[in-house]
Amino acid sequence: MKSTYRWRTIDIVIASTIAVAFGVVFWAWNILWGATESAFSFFPPAQTLLYGVWLMPAVLAGLIIRKPGASLYTETVAAIISALLGAQWGAMVIPQGLVQGLGAELAFALLLYRSWKLPAALLAGALTGLSAALFDFFAWNAAYDLWDYRIPYALLTIVSSTIVAGAGSWALTRALAPTGVLDRFAAGRDRALV
Fold this sequence. Notes:
Layout: H1 9-36, H2 56-65, H3 70-84, H4 93-110, H5 118-139, H6 146-176, H7 186-189
Helix pairs in contact: 1-2, 1-3, 2-3, 2-4, 2-5, 2-6, 3-4, 4-5, 5-6
């Protein structure tokens, strides 16, 4: 019996394409993040409302490829590309990407890689946001006050990720499906059912 979880060449190509594209997006988003810091000086944790873009490849790849490892692979490779392009946080973004990818991967695994509707995307977005917040809690924000900074930062990261990475990736998948570019994937074949 052929495993539905076995990766095809097209799965690897598309996951890599998503990762590279988002690695470049990350590079630009890193610049935007730095440029908007002063705009959030009234409440610095609010800047994490922009965070969800960094988590999109994990959810998007999971929704399109629908196989174990897609979220983890895509988010990690995107982080590697970001680091190679000169992310201001250096190589630390690579383990960060790995942890973020694990969050989305956990969501799809909890659903046994069988649910691809909006609630699944929102769960993947929320869990990748949670994993990102936990990483940042210890790696970047350990010196900050718990209740004035770290807790609001974590909560707003989860909100951003749920909306931007979760709902945004679901909407992007729905928008791509009718174009035919996803026809080699179940996500494209489901377009009549969406």
